């Protein structure tokens, strides 16, 4: 699958995952929902990002989604 056909895109990455934890925000291009992937050593986790009202953060198609 070509990169442009990928369903999820990385919009922010902090850390390298080797000597420090790595935090990556990914966006589902179909729904616009934002997720946080956290990785530290052999452990990691994925969660939906929530706004101040407890609703999922959604990026509109015309924002940063390629």
Write out key terms for the chains shown.
mainly beta, 66 residues
Structural summary, described in words:
The protein is mainly beta and 66 residues long. It has strands at 8-14, 22-28, 34-40, 43-48. The protein has a domain at 3-48. It contains no helices and 4 strands. It has a 4-stranded antiparallel sheet, with no helix packed on it.
CA-based gyration radius: 13 Å
Instruction: Give the terminus-to-terminus CA distance.
Output: 16 Å
User: Can you give the mean pLDDT?
Assistant: 87
Write the H/E string, N to C.
EEEE
- Can you tell me the overall shape? globular
Structural class: mainly beta
Helix count? 0
The amount of helix comes to: under 10%
Q: How can the largest sheet be summarized? A: 4 strands, antiparallel
Query: What is the count of β-strands?
Result: 4
Question: Numbering strands along the chain, what is their spatial order in the largest sheet?
Answer: 1-2-3-4
**Can you tell me the residue ranges where pLDDT is under 50 for at least 5 consecutive residues?**
none
Strand content: 35-45%
Please identify the oligomeric state. single chain
């Amino acid at each position: 699958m070509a990169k442009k056909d990928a369903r999820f895109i990385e919009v922010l990455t902090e850390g390298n995952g080797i000597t420090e934890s790595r935090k990556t925000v990914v966006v589902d291009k179909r729904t616009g929902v934002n997720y946080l992937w956290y990785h530290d050593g052999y452990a990691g986790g994925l969660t939906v990002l929530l706004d101040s009202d407890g609703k999922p953060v959604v990026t509109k198609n015309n924002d940063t989604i390629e």
